[in-house]
Amino acid sequence: MGTKKQKKRLQKRKRATKAVKALGRRRSEQLVEWLYQGYSSHYKPEIHYQQYVEEYDKQIVKSVYGRTRFKNFNLSYEDLETFYGMRRKRFKRRQEREYKKRLEQQCVRIVFLGTGYSSALNFYNTCFAIRNHKKTFLVDTGGGQPILRQLRKAMISLDDIHDIFITHNHMDHILGIFWLLRDISRRMADGKYEGDLTIYASDDVIKAIKDASHILLSSLTTDYLDNRIKFREIHNDETIDIIGQKFTFFDTQAEKPRQFGLKMETENGVTFTYLGDVPYNDSEEKYAKGVDYLIHEAFCLEADKRLFKPHGKNHSTLKDACENFKKTGARYLIITHTEDNLGEKRGPHYRHEAAVDHHTMIMVPDDLETIFLKKPSKQKSYFDKGIEKEVDPNAADTQEERA
Predict the structure, then answer these.
(1) Can you give the pTM of this predicted structure?
(2) From CA 292, how far away is CA 331, in angstroms rounded?
(3) At residue 373, does pLDDT exceed 70?
(4) Chain centroid offset of residue 380 CA
(5) Residue pair 101/125 in contact by the 8 Å Cβ criterion
(6) Helical H runs in 244-345?
(7) Sign of CA dihedral 85, 86, 92, 96
């Protein structure tokens, strides 16, 4: 049966476990809400990410245990992680459940199928899908067959893909298109694929896809080219309606090869610009100025530029991306096309350097993460002290008259 002390100890342990589980649910919901609002994490510039997370946990622990009998209950960060399962895999599963609930509230979203550079091993090559309900607009296709795996993990069916945009003909952006053409043409032949597939690209990219298709793919696929698989040549400053949204394509003025970016404006008035895998230049101001979401490549951290030499490859460091972000006056900065030597620590390191050195909140999505394109709040960043207010131009004159 046990002594009274043993019974009290057992009751204390059960209550502690119950309280910590409740704490876990509360913190998980808060983090998911931050992600939905457009933040990938919250940072304080004066302390490191891990220290901030631990301090945040301690604050919640105090608030939870302040209402219980266990005010002096010692709990380490490892214990917290064990109790409420904030390891990456468990958090991913919770994200998926939360995202499904948000689909009806906010339809337009970006699913990042890959976020790495051409030689990435820990991440897939940079490409993403813009989804509106089940309609999918695919931007680039990565470097090969893994595009099919990424689409399957993201629960995106090939039957939902009817529009694909290829920014340029680098192999880490174009090779996946041949695997998609092969599988989609087979579904067309079996009568399982409804409608046509349209590929948007510049003239040189279209020529490269057609020439390589006749070499790499069977006649089953090539017979559909220019038939049910259509090619649409894009031009600078051209606007096209795709998946119910307005997309404007623009020439990034990049060095060889020629490359296009895109700007999207949703029905809700949310603006989003993708600059490709080249740095921002002043010719793109028309498309990047004041947008809500800006995707900019950052090959490496500023501290690692001697190791990776991004400027020699026509790429940017994180410092360059943050400076360009401030030039454009965009609301949120999304970083992609990065090196992956840091592995899972890539996001915390990038966000920490941006917060400490540049006072900039950034998002560094991992593969298969989703960002909902909701209208951002008037508060520009985490470091702003107050919410922006509309200024009445006649207010100064009124005050002078009263004086």
Answers:
(1) 0.70
(2) 5
(3) yes
(4) 18
(5) no
(6) 285-288, 305-308, 318-328
(7) positive
